[in-house]
Structures are given as structure tokens and as C-alpha cells.
Amino acid sequence: MLSVKRVTKIFNAGTINKKIALHDVSFKLDEGDFATMIGSNGSGKSTLLNCIAGVYQVDRGLITIDGMDMTRLSEYRRAAKLGRVFQDPMMGTASDMEIEENLALALRRGQRRSLSWGITHKEREYYRELLKKLGLGLENRLNIKVGLLSGGQRQALTLLMATLKKPKLLLLDEHAAALDPRTAKKVLELTDRIVEEGNLTTLMVTHNMRDAINHGNRLLMMYEGQIILDIREKEKQKLTVEDLLARFESASGREFAEDRALLS
Amino acid sequence: MVQILTAAVSLGLLWAIITTGVYITYRILTIADLTVEGSVVTGAAIAAITITRGINPYVSIGLAFLGGVGAGLITGLLHTQLKIPSLLSGILTMIALYSINLRIMGRANISLLQVNTVYTVFEQMGLRSTVSVIILGIIFVGCLIGILYWFFGTEIGCAIRATGNNPQMVRAQGINTNTTIMLGLMISNGLVATGGALIAQSQRFADIQMGIGSIVIGLASVIIGEVLFGRRHFASRLLSLVSGAIVYRVIIAMVLKLGMPANDLKLFTAITVAIALSLPVFRSYLKPIKKSMKWSN
Q1: Sequence ranges of the domains in chain B
Q2: B208 vs chain A: nearest CA distance in angstroms?
Q3: What interface predicted TM-score (ipTM) does this complex get?
Q4: Structural domain tally of chain A?
Q5: Which of A74, A75, A105 lies nearest to residue B158, judging by beta carbons?
Q6: Which positions in chain A touch B161 (Cβ < 8 Å)?
Q7: Contact indicator for A228, A251 with CB cutoff of 8 Å
Q8: What pTM was estimated for this model as a whole?
Q9: Fewer C-beta within 10 Å: chain A N or C terminus?
Q10: pLDDT in tens, B50-94
């Protein structure tokens, strides 16, 4: 499915602020994998996600999805294969546009835009059904501006938009981190449900160890621009926060000193 | 008095077309596009030179539109392909257009007194010239509102609207924001040039200086329209632009009538726009307590 091969990304090359954000990173996701990715600030998780999405061009390496080379494609061209949800709830939606307009933009992800109507009547019914399933009471508010929604509602909507047209790969960039704990939990539950229903290949970045352990079938840990742990299936099921900390310390030779990740 | 008012309304209707162009960049794309200052004249210049060479005045309007589209394309390329900030891209095109417009016209001023214009048909029916302008203005503006309402409801139109709102999200939906920005700039400047062509024909001359301050006048009209008629539905927004452009012209006619020297007009307009744009700041001063008590990010 997704293959990342020896990817290196350097910021501010040739200056005193040079930072090797990704250092020769390689990993693969299989069809249907739901991998969580954890790591402290600056470990390169978000950079990796952004390199896959095409926000940043990599300096070295190869990124393929289903065997197709994406490495040099621009962000908007890769979008045909990717569903994305961002950390900032403002990022994933157009706030001055209506809920249905946002959904309509997402339904046509990766398609050539034409001069036919932006939304059809048939779609509206479909949107209403989908929103009903979210259980946020948005199904009767198709025409309100997204800017009026709460952060949690916006993330739920963005999640729906990202999967409205089935993506080859769903990229979640700490999409629950900016929400209060209760809302975050709801959004994560929704994530599980949507990923399961669609059998979506997913890469979810998180700061929260417990979330990383409780979701998905794989856990990747990043440290200083490299993937230092890749824990799978059975092994992951038995994993506890203590195990993870111990594995981190033996893999990195350091103590895990990131209090944000310990919070749950 | 009635005469002053009808003159103001007729001019306002023509400026409404320019205002719509400014609205597309300023509000929809959220770019302050100074190309406008040049493309107004480009439209006027193309219309003037083609009409004096014997080309049908209606055809000249179409040519003017295309000229404006070209100007918008240049600004769009500078901004999206060469990564020059939008404000500077507009300024560069505007300056370049000054020379280009002079080349088109061959001189700084072209009179249209001796030729037929788009308004001639109506004048031949015995209508006064301002009335002819109002009739044609209404036809043009009516068609324009219809077309824009349709266009911004299409997939491409929605993509352009979303681009000004959240370009990151638009790219994530597989849309090339460079294309949508360029399209917006081209349509906007095409409309501005069309307005320029219609204005030149109604005042019966084209002048190299006629674009000065047009961006500010356009902004003033956009803001007046929003203040007076709100920012609700898209169709009513388009109507508010027209009303804003007309109200602006009526205000100007009034202050001139009250004895303000015409030379101070631009200063007056600039101050009006500055005040209107800073209204949100004053509003936040008025209710600081209410806001600080509400938890927000």
C-alpha cells in the first residue's frame, strides 16, 4: 500500500538552523493497516505526514502508494489518494462556506472540477444520512456556515469529508489534540468506526501514549527523525504504557521526558 | 437635483461592474489586487481605440473584457508561479499597464465624441444620454449578477470561493489553488476592464489617468454595500455591491453639491474607506469585557 523508502528531509539546509527532520526513514503500511504514530515534539511525526501528503517535498527517498510514485507530485495531485484531518480544527474546512458546500468539495476530491452545479439534490440526501450517523444533530443544519460549529463538530465533519470519497490512505495529524478530553474521546471513537466500516488504511499521529496503544493494529514510534519502534498486531494488543516507555528507553538510550505524552 | 441624482445613478451602475470585480479579489480570494488601477484604463483604451477604428462598440466591450483577463493573468502568473506577494504582483502589473495602455491608445487621451457608442442605439430612440446609460447599465449589471450567481455555484466557482477561505483545505481536496487564484484574478480584471470600457463610452473619452483611485472606489462601494445591506446570501451580496456602488456615487454627488472642492474627492474617499475598514477595531473597543469573559481560543 504505502511505502516510504529512505526518506530524508532537511529544513534550513546550509544555515546555522539546519535541522534534519527525517533521517533515512523507511516503513510500509499494508492494505487495511491502522497504524498509530507516536513521538515527542520535533521527532518528525508531523513532518513525515506532511511529506507523504506533499506539503513538503522530500530531499531524498521514495514515496509510493499502491506502487505509484508520489515523491515529486504536488500536494493537490496526491489528494486524489489521500484523506486528511489536521490538528487545527480550522484547517480542514472552509469556515465561511456551508456544511453542504464543504461536503460537496470533499465528495469531488481528486476530480476535475467542471461548470456543472457544485451540489446536486441527490447529494443533499446522502449528506443528510451521513450526518445523521454522526449523531451531532448536523443533519438539519446543512446550510449553516461551518465557522459556527465547535472544534469537535468541525473535526467530525473533516473526518467525514476525508472519507466521503474513499481514500487509499487516511492521514490523521493529531486530529484530537486540540479538543477537550471528552470531545477528543468522541472524535477518536468516530475515527475507529469510520476506519473499520471503510476498512481504511490509516496513519494516525498522536501525542497520547494511551491513544496510540488503544487504537489501530500497529504502533510506530519516532525519535529524532527516525522510526525506532514498529510494534504489530498481537504484540501491540498486550502493550501497556509502561512497556512502551521501557521499549522507548532501550531503543533510544534515553529516558522518556515528555509529559504531554504521558497525559491521558 | 434630479439630474445630479440620475447622473450619479448612471455612473454608479457602471462602477458596479468594477465593484463586482474588486469584490471577487478582495472578498472572495482575499487578495487586495491593485491591477484594477491599470485594467480599468486598459478596458477604456481598448474600447476607445477599436471604436475609433470603426469596430462595433459592443464588440469593443468584448475585446476590453479580454484585455482585462490578460492583465489578470499576468498578475496571477507573477503571484502563483513566481511567488511574488499578491499585493506586489498587482502593483507590478499596474505599473506595466501604464505603458501598455499608452501604447494601446497611442496618446494620453482619446475623444469619443464623434463616434457611435454602445449607448447610441438608445439615444437614437430619443432618450437622454444618462437615461441610456442607466438602461444599458441595468441590462449589463442584471446579466452580470445572473452569470456570477450561476458561476460561483458551479464546481469551479465553489473551488474559487473556498480558495480564498482556506487554501490548505482546497489543496487537500485535490484542487490546484494556483489555478483557482489565476481564474479569479482573470475574471475580476475582465469585469473591471469591461466597466472601464463602458465608462469611457459614457463620458465619451478615454484617459490614461482615469484609473487612479479605482481600487479604493471599488472597496468603498463593496464596504458601503455590506454595511447597508448585510453579508448574508450570495445573491443578496451581489445586489448589495450594485447598491453600494450607486450609493457611493450619490454620496459623492451630494458632498460636491454641498461645496466640497472636487480636488479633495480622493482624500474624502480614502478617509471613508479607512474608517469603514477599521470599524471592527472600534467595535472590539466597545465591548471588551463581554469578549474576555467568554472562553475562546
Answers
A1: 2-210
A2: 37
A3: 0.90
A4: 1
A5: A105
A6: 94, 96-97, 101
A7: yes
A8: 0.91
A9: C
A10: 999 999 999 999 999 999 999 999 999 999 999 999 999 999 999
